[in-house]
Design goal:
The structure holds two protein chains of two kinds.
Chain A lengths: L1 H14 L14 H22 L1 H9 L16 E2 H4 L2 H6 L8 H11 L19 H11 L6 E4 L9 E4 L1 H19 L5 E8 L5 H13 L6 E5 L5 H8 L6 H41 L2 E5 L2 H14 L3 E3 L4 E5 L10 H11 E3 L7 E6 L6 E4 L5 E2 L5 E5 L10 E9 L11 E11 L19 E2 L5 E2 L13
Parallel strand pairs in A: 1-15, 4-5, 4-6, 6-8, 7-9, 8-10
Antiparallel strand pairs in A: 2-3, 10-11, 11-12, 12-16, 13-14, 14-15, 15-16, 15-17
Helix pairs in contact in A: 2-3, 8-9, 10-11, 11-12, 12-13
Chain B lengths: L7 E3 L7 E5 L5 H7 L6 E7 L2 E2 L8 E6 L3 H14 L6 H20 L4 H14 L3 H8 L9 H5 L13 E2 L6 E6 L2 H8 L17 E6 L6 H11 L9 E5 L6 H13 L7 E4 L6 H10 L2 E5 L2 H15 L9 E5 L3 E6 L17 H14 L9 E7 L7 H19 L8 H13 L5 E3 L8 E5 L5 H10 L4 E7 L4 H6 L8 E7 L9 H13 L3 E4 L27 E6 L4 H19 L9
Parallel strand pairs in B: 2-5, 8-9, 8-11, 9-10, 11-12, 13-14, 13-18, 14-17, 16-17, 18-19, 19-20
Antiparallel strand pairs in B: 1-2, 3-4, 3-5, 6-7, 7-20, 15-16
Helix pairs in contact in B: 3-9, 4-5, 4-9, 10-11, 12-13, 12-18
Classes of the chains: A alpha/beta, B alpha/beta.
């Protein structure tokens, strides 16, 4: 524990990151912000270069050393689609609970802190599920306060991320500042999430923590899905990755159809009904509401209200939030869903309650919140850029390319938060660009992703007649 | 070229010139009767293989007419009439070979308008580099068309289902793999030699083709295959091909050029573009067709198969509608240990065999930037019993040649992101000591030596990674390990060809090689050719399990595999010499690529 405390002090001393409050970035001039971020990127890089084997190996292979130059910035970016999924390639299986030791070595390789490897012997040879293995990891390394989070895992192959107390604190701080700044959230709301509370899905966990950080007491935060969503369950439900043998057959033939049936017919209708009950109660009591759910769940709720022929009138300042995009095929577009919601959920002045989208990902300790003009504002302590098809930073104030980001202040100490995403976006005033005539009409300065410009990119497009097997 | 086929050049003020080209082909006498200035048309403008607006960039615009129902009726009637003019029997193929020789010479002459037009339009439209297109236009000599006559005269019996049989009057061997239990049982019966595998010939009267993707020439390949049936028919078939929007230019240019030499050879052929979703038109064309040849994605193939089944009952002809699907495929290279020995000089050449083999293997993966179904993905290298690290020696040599080829035959306009991500991915796997990345981050290709134990997950992801010049070198103890441990993992319908470098000079095909080849054929491999020829499909041999006789007669379900050579080492040297000569002619110093 002493080592751990020293490590944490070393990290902060080296980087001097603790001295800067994240909210101060909103007050800085673009020049001072750029200066600070560039300094922090260099320091963060140097620290992780020394301590993080996986990062060091990656950037060294790209001819990057301990000291970096500005023109090398893009070479520090690791692909989100690979970095925390690389265990699959390394283990040769998407089921780490079959090979806990190899998985532990992989985790140790990904982190910038030394894991006491003698504890690896405490793990079993196999685990019945990924959830059991991840739970065991958190227990055995409880003194590190690790939390393992996953992506929503639409491919059935989850991104597995480790965060420690400091990382979680940074993420929560980042989320709640954004909630406050862009959504105007205060402690007077009642928050209703159409999602499970027991889940490792990063976005759900962070939203929960951040809302509480704002000061909402536990009894004013509600999760309407009473069942847990462990990574194994998410995998089977998505129906794209199964175990081999009889277990796989059972998963595919029985469990997957059953889970989908149960989700569509029982869990989701029930979750929507519960959310509706909270909304009606808030309407009756004149309470401000933050309702957060996926597009499809929010749409179910709107359709349910339409069936009843009812229009809710919530207190002014209420807000609907969504995130994660469309994870499955759905016959209605976001615009149609917005329209249906605005038809049935109003405030007391009979104005439709605003619906804001949140853009984020498991690998990021920040989220971009949608403003009233539909644009997604990136917190100013994050240095966001776009990359062209050859992975070069596009040096213009209005650019379209793959979104990449450097988050030296909010990224935590476990790994460098320098990532290249798989989303193609149109980014305004990203990087060191600050063209005032391009500022968002909402009045916020800084980088933002233009409304309706986020596209998931399959990096390998089909060109010829070569097969993908 | 006819006057109306000349490119129309548009000058958009100070912008670079745009080129508009025809993305269709109709015989001259038909186009004058059918097309007018008022005929509606559709066009697509591409720049570096991606859609762009004609007025905003240096794109190339291809256009094609959109015929109405009446015009389609007229087209079919005119093509039917033209069929009479097309020569048949051996004359057809002799004349075609002669015409292609003339076209080939034109494509090899600098400042020839046909070549200039091809080089101005196809690279911009498809995204492939200019040098890549130029090399392939110069490579018509790689298509051994003369074997096509012999291919149509083969006598194939059930003996082919038991073992490799020599092909008659052409190099190579052939075997048949039945796909049904009854087929396997019939193959076991004695006197296979006396039982014909094919039924009575029934050459098609009407052939319908579908070509997809952006690798140039698929429509042309289908045209030649369909017209090859004229050799055994009293009347040439009518051939209608639905071409790819992604590359409609090359076939059109070559057909124009053939028409200038011998218009009757292509008088019954039409290459157009229409929507698969135009169900009425599809139904109309399929009801007429006896044979449907489709080279397209697996999804499109499935749709077309369903459509052929739907119309089967409504057809005018009593003969069944034959469907030859050519879906998406994967191909590999296999290099025998005798080729890896650095001290072994190539016969009659002052360079080690390894140099030649590595260059040819590189070309098999470089051509079409691994976007073709014939492009080699993984290179299996036999290392059993060899001293040192032969896989590393091979990979180093391959890397050298890939680096040279990256300059001589640059990669197309594809994002480097894919290469960089793969580089990172395999770099991260180096920690376990089973993977070694040989190339550099800056290279326009990726070479990796992969020693991991094969399992379906790692193998599938490796195969899928190998596109856009990503090569995994897989050391194997013996050649038989390739079919036993790797090819069996690939779905049979996805396997296409393997390019090989094996054997010794003047030794022909050894028993061991034939055993290996048989195992490959049972896994689903349909063509085995020597290194360097991977990207050049041979019409006279098996294409996805169909041989030319399949165009005119029916047989038991299953697939053919052909070995396209008798003397592998000699053919390797010959291929090397051909590339060398071609490089010299084109000013590409392939001949001293790192030698």
């Amino acid at each position: 524990m002493q080592n751990l405390a020293k490590l944490s002090t070393d990290f902060n001393d080296t980087l001097l990151l603790e001295e800067i409050e994240l909210e101060r970035f909103w007050e800085m001039t673009p020049e001072s912000r750029e200066y600070l971020i560039w300094e922090a990127i260099q320091k963060t890089h140097r620290w992780h270069f020394a301590c993080n084997p996986a990062y060091r190996r990656t950037v060294m292979a790209r001819q990057v050393g301990e000291t970096i130059h500005k023109e090398e910035l893009s070479r520090l970016l690791r692909p989100t689609a690979q970095t925390f999924k690389s265990y699959i390639d390394l283990l040769g299986t998407p089921f780490p609970h079959d090979e806990p030791q190899a998985f532990l070595n992989w985790i140790a390789d990904q982190l910038s802190i030394e894991l006491p490897r003698e504890r690896f012997t405490r793990f079993h040879k196999r685990y019945a599920s990924l959830e059991k293995l991840l739970g065991e990891f958190e227990r055995i390394f409880a003194d590190f306060s690790f939390e393992i989070l996953t992506s929503s895992g639409t491919s059935g192959r989850a991104t597995i991320m480790v965060r420690d107390e400091q990382g979680i604190e940074k993420t929560v701080q980042s989320f709640y500042l954004a909630f406050q700044r862009y959504f105007g959230m205060r402690a007077e709301h009642r928050a209703v999430f159409i999602m499970p509370q027991k889940t490792r899905i990063a976005m759900a966990r962070m939203a929960d923590f951040s809302i509480r950080r704002i000061g909402l007491p536990k009894e004013r935060v509600h999760f309407t899905i009473p069942f847990p969503a462990h990574p194994d369950q998410v995998r089977v439900r998505t129906g794209r990755t199964y175990r081999s043998g009889i277990q796989g057959w059972l998963e595919k033939r029985l469990l997957h159809p059953f889970m989908n049936f149960a989700n569509e017919r029982l869990v989701m209708p029930q979750a929507v009904e519960r959310a509706l009950a909270f909304l009606k109660q808030a309407e009756a009591q004149g309470e401000k509401i933050l309702l957060f759910g996926g597009w499809i769940q929010l749409h179910s709720l709107a359709l349910r209200l339409k069936e009843e022929g009812r229009t809710l009138r919530l207190a002014e300042g209420s807000l609907l939030g969504t995130g994660g995009g469309f994870k499955e095929q759905y016959p209605h577009s976001a615009a149609e869903i917005r329209q249906d919601l605005s038809d049935v959920i109003h405030d007391t002045k009979d104005t439709p309650v605003p619906l804001r989208d949140v853009y984020g990902m498991a690998e990021a300790n920040w989220a971009a919140m949608q403003c009233a003009y539909g644009n997604y504002h990136i917190p100013p302590w994050v240095y966001a850029v776009t990359l062209d098809e050859d992975d070069r930073i596009i040096p213009t104030a209005d650019s379209t390319g793959l979104l990449a980001f450097f988050d030296p202040f909010g990224g935590g100490r476990l790994f460098p938060a320098f990532f290249k995403t798989t989303d193609r976006v149109r980014l305004i005033n990203g990087g060191n660009q600050a063209q005032t005539d391009l500022n968002c009409p909402c009045g916020e300065e800084g980088a933002y992703i233009l409304n309706d410009s986020i596209r998931r990119v399959d990096l390998l497009e089909e060109a010829g007649c070569a097969a993908q097997i | 070229m006819p006057e109306d086929a000349e490119p129309a050049r548009k000058d958009h003020g100070t912008r670079t010139l745009n080129i508009t080209v025809e993305g269709f082909w109709l015989p001259q006498n038909i186009r004058t009767q059918l097309l007018t200035a008022e005929t509606p048309h559709e066009s697509l403008c591409l720049h570096q293989g991606r859609p762009c607006l004609p007025e905003e960039s240096q794109g190339v615009e291809a256009w094609w007419p959109q015929l109405n129902q009446e015009q389609w009726g007229q087209l079919l009637a005119l093509l039917e009439e033209n069929r009479r003019a097309v020569p048949t029997g051996r004359h057809y193929w002799e004349q075609l070979e002669g015409a292609l020789q003339v076209v080939s010479q034109r494509l090899e002459s600098r400042h020839e308008p046909l070549l200039e037009l091809a080089l101005e339009s196809i690279p911009v439209y498809t995204g492939y580099s200019r040098a890549m297109i130029a090399l392939n236009l110069n490579a018509l000599s790689f298509f051994a068309l003369e074997s096509m006559r012999a291919a149509m005269r083969q006598t194939i019996s059930w003996q082919e289902a038991k073992s490799w049989q020599r092909l008659q009057d052409m190099p190579g061997r052939l075997c048949f793999t039945p796909a049904t239990i009854s087929g396997f049982l019939r193959a076991k019966l004695p006197f296979g030699r006396y039982r014909a595998l094919f039924g009575k010939p029934h050459p098609p009267e009407h052939v319908l083709g579908f070509a997809a993707g952006n690798v140039p020439g698929t429509a042309l390949l289908i045209t030649f295959l369909a017209m090859a049936t004229s050799q055994v028919s009293g009347k040439a078939p009518m051939v209608i091909i639905r071409n790819s929007r992604q590359e409609p230019i090359f076939s059109s240019l070559v057909l124009h050029a053939i028409e200038e030499v011998a218009p009757e050879l292509v008088a019954s052929v039409a290459v157009l573009i229409w929507d698969y979703a135009d169900k009425e038109l599809q139904r109309k064309l399929m009801r007429r067709a006896d044979l449907v040849l489709a080279a397209a994605s697996d999804e499109t193939i499935a749709q077309l198969r369903a459509q052929t089944q739907d119309v089967s009952l409504l057809r005018k002809s009593k003969a069944p509608l034959v469907f030859h699907p050519h879906g998406h495929k994967v191909s590999f290279s296999v290099i025998g240990k005798e080729m890896v020995d650095t001290s072994r000089a190539a016969p009659n050449a002052p360079v080690p065999m390894l140099e030649i083999v590595a260059l040819l293997a590189a070309l098999d993966s470089v051509l079409w930037d691994q976007h073709g179904c014939l492009s080699s993905r993984l290179h299996f290298i036999e290392v059993g019993g060899l001293p040192g690290d032969p896989a590393r020696a091979y990979a180093d040599k391959l890397t050298q040649h890939m680096r040279t080829l990256a300059t001589l035959l640059p990669r197309g306009a594809w994002p480097r992101q894919h290469l960089h991500d793969r580089f990172d991915r395999y770099k991260s796997l180096e920690t376990r000591g089973e993977v070694q990345v040989i190339s550099r981050y800056e290279d326009d290709f990726l070479i990796v030596i992969d020693h991991r134990m094969p399992n379906p997950y790692t193998f599938f992801s490796s195969v899928n990674d190998c596109q856009g010049r990503v090569i995994l070198v897989r050391p194997v103890e013996s050649l038989l390990e390739v079919p036993r441990c790797f090819l069996t993992l690939v779905p049979k319908h996805n396997l296409q060809s393997i390019s090989v470098a094996v054997g010794a000079s003047q030794q022909g095909l050894s028993k061991d090689f034939l055993r290996f080849a048989m195992r490959c054929s049972r896994c689903g491999v349909t063509a085995i050719r020597t290194l360097g020829r991977g990207a050049f499909p041979q019409l006279a041999y098996s294409w996805d399990g169909f041989i030319p006789l399949d165009l005119i007669a029916s047989r038991a379900t299953g697939h053919f595999t052909t070995i396209e050579f008798d003397q592998p080492v000699e053919e390797l040297i010959q291929t090397f010499q051909m590339f060398k000569a071609m490089g010299e002619k084109m000013g590409l110093p392939l001949h001293h690529a790192d030698f």
